[in-house]
Amino acid sequence: MTMKRKGMTLMEVLVSMFIMAIGMLGVLAIFPAAADMMGRAIANAQIAEGLVNARAMHDGVDWMSDNYVGKLTVPPTSPLPPGWTAPGNNDSPIFLFLDQAAGVAGLPSLANVANAKIPTIVGQATEADINGRFFTLNSDVVLNKQGLGNVDDDGLTVAVDREGKFTLAHFFMKPLPMSAPGKIRRHILIFKGRSQSPTDYTSFNVDPGQISSPTTFRVTGNSSVQLKPRQWLMGLDTPGGNPNYVEFFEVRAVHEGPGASDNVEIEISPSMTTTLKRVYFLKDVLRVVLVGS
Question: 21: which of 37, 64, 127, 192 lies 20 to 30 Å off by Cα?
């Protein structure tokens, strides 16, 4: 003779609900981590494509070749546009920050580091066209038949289709002395969501006494700069005049110091190889990559 059970007890119901809730919490906890990993994967894919695009465009147009640039990317006669004129001392390093969007927007050069733009290529493109063709990731915008992302096929200027667009800039350094043979170091800056009318780069001086280690320094009086991890900085070895060295750093952590809220300690990567005297905040820069010589 079998005995029929009347039903589940209250304790069994509560235990089942508890186990189910624990499982649901575990599933929900995965979503933020998965979303962050997916976002990083997408960004890394765009960065990789940006590097391929930037290197291909640089090698194809050869921004830094004297002969090619002199004939095709700058006027063949003097004066040269701002940023393309080398300093008079041949034993000083030469820096060139090729930021087309900033040049088109009419921003002044970064103090002590020439900010250049390309006024023309083979006389067939405007400065804005060059920015849309050579300094914008191809996969991130809808291109017209001429390969432009900011001009429709009928020739009318249009807005870039995607607000989260990725754009590029180049930074070149010719080590000293110029009298000795040497290769040019190339950095590629990849921007995410940068405005087509960018504002100037914010900068601040660094007191050598506030550098506590090769990866840590403190700044004060800069409440307008809201630094966060994963942002990028450009450091110079002099507060004024032509620098001898320029480095790029990623912010790893920001710690508020005692006193005012704008007294912060910044952890960076990689380590400094020289004493920083001035730092520029590279707004909207997603990654800076040294691509060699």
Answer: 37
Query: Which residue do the tokens 């050869």 mark?
Result: 62
What phi and psi, each to the nearest 5 degrees, are found at residue 2?
-90, 150
Asked whether 173 and 95 are in contact (CB, 8 A), the reply is yes
Question: What pLDDT is attached to residue 71?
Answer: 42
Query: pTM for this structure?
Result: 0.71
User: Quick check: is 47 in a domain?
Assistant: yes
Give yes or no: residues 274 and 146 share one domain: no
8: left (phi over 0), alpha (psi -120 to 50) or beta: beta
Same domain, 182 and 54: yes
Considering the domain boundaries, does residue 8 fall inside one? no
Number of domains within the chain? 2
Which positions of the chain have pLDDT values less than 70?
Answer: 1-8, 58-92, 108-125, 138-144, 146-164, 174-183, 196, 200, 220-225, 257-262, 293
Q: Among 197, 216, 248, identify where a domain stops.
A: 197
| N-terminal to C-terminal alpha carbon distance within the chain | 89
Query: CB–CB of 233/247 below 8 Å?
Result: no
Eight-state DSSP code of residue 260: S
User: CB of 157 within 8 A of CB of 181?
Assistant: no
Nearest-angstrom CA–CA distance, 120 and 256: 46
Domain extent, residue 277, equals 201-284
Enter the DSSP assignment of 110. Answer: B
Tokens of 71: 């004939």
